[in-house]
Known about the structure:
This protein is an alpha+beta fold. It has helices spanning 5-14, 55-65, 68-73, 87-98, 143-157, 172-180, and strands spanning 19-28, 31-39, 43-49, 103-110, 113-121, 129-134, 163-167, 184-196, 199-211.
Amino acid sequence: MMISNAQSLKDTMAKVPGVQSVDDIKIKNKTIEYISFNNESLGRLMFRRLKVADSTALFDFYFQGLSEESRNLFPPYPLFSPPPNSVEELYSRIAGWEKDDDWTFLNLTKDERIIGVCLLKRYQPEHPVSGLAVRKEFQGTGLGFILQTIINGQARLLNLKRLYATVAPDNVASLRVHKKCGFEETGRLVPRYRYKDGIQVADGYDVELVRA
Length: 212
């Protein structure tokens, strides 16, 4: 008997440390719409695909929920690169992304509050990239592994043969999570940029990793 995509993803999540149960999953056009599950230490959590209605909550997550260092390390283009000046500007960027089918951006919520985000972007078909971030007070709780597991699952739904990520060389926790999720270093360093006074400036190099 053929196993459905939803059941396969549910089985994968059930094996993740800290996940007690997976209650409901919806996949539409090979894209995750939502996943409801229970975490041992945090209770009921939900992944939901990003919508324009999330602009206020996402703006709060990015500017209040992340440290400045985390924001510099996680500037997903074009939502936060360059940083939006207002919720209205972020709303407009999300609306633009909704017309594009080469991305998946998922919010991880607890009691309607965004506590983590993860994304998969395929603007270069041969080089799909992933990224994730966890609200500062929830870091160290195992959410990074759960977020990356979900993005790996999304990549499988799309039959992607490879998935890339870039991580700061001194970000030991993120490197550990990615390697635990099956990524290996390619040996390539990728330039990192950030915005200073509205101007994009070089800010070192990141380690490139790939999951095949």
